[in-house]
């Protein structure tokens, strides 16, 4: 019987490389798999036999045999071999998902965060894990949150929770008995898209998010770009309009001052003379209200300028746009593209833009993907 808890641990580096290629791109015919990994057919046969015997890989029938001959039997990984819990943690709620080995969502749940001290939050997260794990034993748990995270365990800074220096990974591992990986929520989303989503067929892509703040991530040569300042919101202070409003940090015309949901509804309230929510501003603009339309149009143009700047500097093959405020890109699509065009060389290649409509489970799935990565790559932090 296959021990799914230690599914990846005994694999050699070469076996792991074969299994990972099939996980990310399978089902794959043996000939294609050998070409992808630059292996001879004999070497591939030798490597895959124990993987087949152990149940890590299995053969699937090709529904379209070539030339009417014997059907091919591509290799694939059974995504149901392991389950993972992913959690998107905010200052008020924890959104949880249970996924399979390919980050397909199997179940969801939500817990209210009524107190933000670490112990209360860990209690809520442990309850969420327990609820999603009924009848199952998840291989690992991933948690994504807004802030700076180190070594997949230590929350250095989480503004929405008012945390500094909280070892959430250790606390949650002690409560659940499962390996836990903590990550910045945007980094987690990037990793999910890199392995299982809109970034899996390119070697470089960027993601921009708008909502409570402005965030950005970048994958180059199939690797997420990180550094000591990851997770502190640097892109939010990228200068866009020197005549624009100031953000709370005093930066005039930066991305946060022009694109955050709070900045937009605050500007609208001043112009309209009454309190309005972010979605109400967009509704008014979509209905043709000239004042709301002016505010939304200016923000969309600024968003286009920011997109163009990222494209000009990093030159990614694709740019993903998401976040709880991404409806702006739909309501003012023409002005967003006008902002891009104004900041791009006419001879530059067209941008491959993809909008991912925001959903908390999208972010929770990202956290699950980090747990999957840490498990499959056998580098999940052990306490």
Automatic annotation (TrEMBL):
Assigned keywords, A-Z: Kinase, Transferase
Gene Ontology MF, one: kinase activity
Family note: Belongs to the ROK (NagC/XylR) family.
Protein's name according to its UniProt entry: NBD/HSP70 family sugar kinase
Magnesium found in the keyword field: no
Pfam families, A to Z: ROK
Record PROSITE patterns: ROK (PS01125)
UniProt cross-references to PANTHER family, sorted A to Z: BIFUNCTIONAL UDP-N-ACETYLGLUCOSAMINE 2-EPIMERASE_N-ACETYLMANNOSAMINE KINASE (PTHR18964:SF149), ROK (REPRESSOR, ORF, KINASE) FAMILY (PTHR18964)
Record bears the keyword Kinase: yes
């Amino acid at each position: 019987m296959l021990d799914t808890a230690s599914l990846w641990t005994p694999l050699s580096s070469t076996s792991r490389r074969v299994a990972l290629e099939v996980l990310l791109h399978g089902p794959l015919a043996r000939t294609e798999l050998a070409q992808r990994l630059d292996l001879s057919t004999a070497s591939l046969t030798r490597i895959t036999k124990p993987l087949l015997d152990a149940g890590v890989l299995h053969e699937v029938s090709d529904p379209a045999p070539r030339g009417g001959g014997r059907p091919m039997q591509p290799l694939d990984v059974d995504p149901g071999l392991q389950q993972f819990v992913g959690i998107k943690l905010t200052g008020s709620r924890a959104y949880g998902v249970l996924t399979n080995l390919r980050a397909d969502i199997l179940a969801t749940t939500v817990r209210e965060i009524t107190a933000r001290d670490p112990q209360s939050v860990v209690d809520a997260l442990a309850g969420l894990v327990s609820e999603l794990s009924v009848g199952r034993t998840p291989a690992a748990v991933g948690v994504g949150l807004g802030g700076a995270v180190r070594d997949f365990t230590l929350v250095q800074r989480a503004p929405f929770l008012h945390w500094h220096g909280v070892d959430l990974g250790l606390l949650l591992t002690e409560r659940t008995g499962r390996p836990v990986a903590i990550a910045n929520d945007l980094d987690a989303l990037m990793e999910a898209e890199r392995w299982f989503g809109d970034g899996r067929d390119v070697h470089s892509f960027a993601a921009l998010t708008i909502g409570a703040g402005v965030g950005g991530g970048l994958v180059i040569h199939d690797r997420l770009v990180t550094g000591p300042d990851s997770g502190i919101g640097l892109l939010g202070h990228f200068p866009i309009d020197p005549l624009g409003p100031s953000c709370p940090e005093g930066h005039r015309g930066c991305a946060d001052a022009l694109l955050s949901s709070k900045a937009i509804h605050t500007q609208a309230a001043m112009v309209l003379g009454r309190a309005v929510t972010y979605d109400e501003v967009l509704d008014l603009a979509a209905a043709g209200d000239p004042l709301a339309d002016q505010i939304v149009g200016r923000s969309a143009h600024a968003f286009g300028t920011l997109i163009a700047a990222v494209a000009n500097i990093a030159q990614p093959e694709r740019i993903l746009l998401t976040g709880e405020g991404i409806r702006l890109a739909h309501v003012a699509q023409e002005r967003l593209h006008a902002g891009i065009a104004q900041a791009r060389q006419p001879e530059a290649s067209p941008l491959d833009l993809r909008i991912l409509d925001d959903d908390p489970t999208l972010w929770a799935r990202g956290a699950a993907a980090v747990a999957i990565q840490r498990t499959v790559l056998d580098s999940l932090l052990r306490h």
